[in-house]
Amino acid sequence: MTEPGAPVVDPLTPADLVRCAEIEQELFAADSPWPLSGFVSELNAAHTTYFAVRTVAGAPVAGYAGISVLGRPGDHECEVHTIAVASEYQGRGYGRVLMDALLRVADASEAPVFLEVRTDNDPAVGLYKSNGFEVTGIRRNYYQPSGADAFTMVRAARTEFAEGHTNS
């Protein structure tokens, strides 16, 4: 059950995509933000799962996140495609609840999770590290056209034992 006042996470829908493109433009204008058509394509891809976070059920999107599950069953890998929270909602835990939703998808597949993040995005790097991600490398000039570098990060697969303990 959701706590009163807690953000609501639900599946991203086609009706949400215009707002996602607006948030994308606001946050990533210097680094080729995804256009509306990119969101449509991602939402329709069979191997991706996208979530919205809202202030309350039925409210406009305050943030969004997506993850892909790739590979054969028993040998899956996951990749975080995007996670973004509109600036007016940042610092309220919305990114954390989106990350939790993404990691549930990965954990259901017992898959490691990969992502890239700007090296200067301290809040995001902190969020990822607090969720068990480790920096594995740097991609120079990854973000274009700004030329910003990205950390590559990975979180090892999590598996459930019969006793209900998690192994990382």
UniProtKB/TrEMBL annotation:
Domain named N-acetyltransferase: residues: 7-158
SUPFAM superfamilies for this protein: Acyl-CoA N-acyltransferases (Nat)
Origin species: Gordonia neofelifaecis NRRL B-59395
Keywords from the UniProt entry: Acyltransferase, Cytoplasm, Transferase
GO MF term list: N-acetyltransferase activity
Family of the protein in this entry: Belongs to the acetyltransferase family. RimI subfamily.
Annotated protein name in UniProt: Ribosomal-protein-alanine acetyltransferase
NCBIfam families for the chain: rimI (TIGR01575)
Pfam family, one: Acetyltransf_1
